[in-house]
């Protein structure tokens, strides 16, 4: 059987080579035409995540320690518990127009408190310490 199948394959090859070159060219042209007629595929761009500053920065923390930090170009803010350093940096840029040099984040667990016989706790807080370059300030802290 192997010998006969070889002969059949060889005969098919000879028949295909006998097909005029003009027909092959026409087939290739048709293929090119169909490819060109299709509209180009547009890749959807990735959605850009925008930072909403009022959701990231909750309030500035004004305390004795925070006001001492102002002299070192360090400002303290209470931020959303889900915020990260990158979001805080973008929010500062958006609200105050100042580019922070560094952002440090502190997670403060709520303290256990007691009201008579009832036990409870204060809420967890997240603070961000924003360091600015020399000469840059945030207007909010100026008069304190």
Automatic annotation (TrEMBL):
GO terms for biological process: translation. SUPFAM superfamilies: Ribosomal proteins S24e, L23 and L15e (SSF54189). Pfam families: Ribosomal_L23. Gene3D superfamilies: 3.30.70.330. The keyword Transmembrane helix does not apply. Keywords: Ribonucleoprotein, Ribosomal protein, RNA-binding, rRNA-binding. One of its GO terms (molecular function) is rRNA binding. Residues 7-16, 25-35 have a biased composition (Basic and acidic residues). Residues 1-43 are annotated as: Disordered. One of its GO terms (cellular component) is ribonucleoprotein complex. Part of the 50S ribosomal subunit. Contacts protein L29, and trigger factor when it is bound to the ribosome. PANTHER family: 60S RIBOSOMAL PROTEIN L23A. Belongs to the universal ribosomal protein uL23 family. One of the early assembly proteins it binds 23S rRNA. One of the proteins that surrounds the polypeptide exit tunnel on the outside of the ribosome. Forms the main docking site for trigger factor binding to the ribosome. This is Large ribosomal subunit protein uL23. It comes from Candidatus Komeilibacteria bacterium CG11_big_fil_rev_8_21_14_0_20_36_20. The lineage of its organism: Bacteria, Candidatus Komeiliibacteriota. The gene is rplW.
